[in-house]
Design goal:
Helix content: 25-40%
Number of helices: 7
CATH topology of the largest domain: Rossmann fold
CATH architecture of the largest domain: 3-Layer(aba) Sandwich
Structural class: alpha/beta
CATH class of the largest domain: Alpha Beta
Shape: globular
Length: about 270
C-alpha cells in the first residue's frame, strides 16, 4: 500500500509495495489544502496531465494515479476505484479529476472514498461520457481497439493517425513510428500499453456507474472531432446531487493540450475555490 501523509507543510509519500509505481507527484504542494488527484485516462498513463498540473493555481499538491497492468487481460472500474482508494490518505479531504475514462473512475473513487468515511470536496470530470447500456454491444476485438489506440495516441498529441498494416505488435509500433508518436518504445512496451488500453476500454463498456454522493463539475469540450463527435449530453445528469456544466476549449483529444491547459486550469481552480 502507499500512504500519503500530509503535514502542514510537507507531502510525504511512503511506498511499501509495487503499487507505489501507480502513484505520481505531478507537482508538490506546500499548503495544507486538499490534494488534487488526477485519474488516468483510457491510455492508463498520467503524462497527459502535466501541462494542467503546471497551470493549476491550487496551492495543494497535484497527484496522479496510473493504471495497473491488467490481470489476464481484464480490468474493472469498481475494482480500480477500490484499489485507488487504498493508495490515498482519506483522512484528509480529496479533490479528484479525470479526463475521459478517468472521469468515470474519478466519480467511482468519490463514491468509494465517501463509503469509507472520507471526504471528497471536488469531482472534476473532463469531457467524459457516462457509461450507457448500449456501449455493451460495441465491438472490442483487437483490430477495432488497435485502430482506436493509434487514433487516441496520435490525436492527443495533435498528430495525424497512421493506419496500421496489421494488428500484430510490430504493425502497431510501425504505425506509431510513422506518425511520430513512438517515444522510442520497443515492441514489448507497445504491447503492454495496448493491453492496458484494450482492458480499460472493455471495462468502460461493461461498467454500470453508481450515483456519486458528491456534486460533479463537468468540463465539456466546445469542439467536435469527426472520430469522436460530441453527443447531445454526456449523460451525467441524474448520477450526482448536482452537475455543473463548464464549456472549455478544444475537442476531446486536445482539451488537455498545452495550448488549452491554462484555460482549463483556471476553470478548475474557480470551481475548487467556490
Amino acid at each position: 500500500m502507499v500512504h500519503l501523509l500530509l503535514s502542514l507543510r510537507t507531502l510525504i509519500i511512503v511506498p511499501t509495495i509495487p503499487s507505489a509505481a501507480m502513484l505520481h507527484v505531478l507537482r508538490p504542494g506546500g499548503d495544507p489544502l486538499a490534494p488534487v488527484v488526477c485519474i488516468h485516462p483510457v491510455t492508463g498513463r498520467v503524462d497527459a496531465y502535466r501541462a494542467l498540473a503546471d497551470a493549476l493555481a491550487w496551492p495543494g499538491p497535484v497527484l496522479a494515479i496510473a493504471a495497473p497492468p491488467p490481470s489476464d487481460g481484464e480490468l474493472a472500474i469498481l475494482d480500480l476505484a477500490t484499489r485507488y482508494a487504498t493508495l490515498l490518505d482519506i483522512t484528509v479531504p480529496l479533490h479528484v479529476v479525470g479526463w475521459g475514462l478517468g472521469g468515470v473512475i474519478a466519480a467511482e473513487l468519490a463514491a468509494e472514498v465517501a463509503a469509507r468515511g472520507g471526504t471528497v470536496g471536488f469531482v472534476g470530470i473532463i469531457d467524459a461520457r457516462a457509461p450507457t447500456q448500449e456501449m455493451r454491444a460495441r465491438p472490442t476485438d483487437r483490430a477495432t481497439l488497435v485502430k482506436a489506440f493509434l487514433q487516441h495516441v496520435a490525436l492527443a498529441r495533435e498528430l495525424a493517425p497512421v493506419a496500421p498494416t496489421g494488428t500484430d505488435t510490430a504493425a502497431v509500433l510501425d504505425a506509431l513510428r510513422r506518425c511520430g508518436a513512438d517515444d522510442g518504445l520497443d515492441a514489448d512496451d507497445v504491447e503492454a500499453r495496448l493491453q492496458t488500453f484494450m482492458a480499460l476500454v472493455r471495462a468502460f463498456y461493461r461498467h454500470t456507474p453508481r450515483r456519486s454522493p458528491v456534486a460533479i463539475d463537468l468540463f465539456e469540450s466546445t469542439e467536435s472531432h469527426p472520430s469522436h463527435p460530441r453527443p447531445p449530453t454526456l449523460g451525467w445528469d441524474g448520477l450526482a446531487p448536482a452537475v455543473a456544466h463548464h464549456p472549455v476549449a478544444g475537442d476531446h483529444f486536445t482539451v488537455l493540450a498545452p495550448r488549452h491547459a491554462p484555460a482549463l486550469a483556471r476553470a478548475i481552480d474557480a470551481c475548487q475555490r467556490a
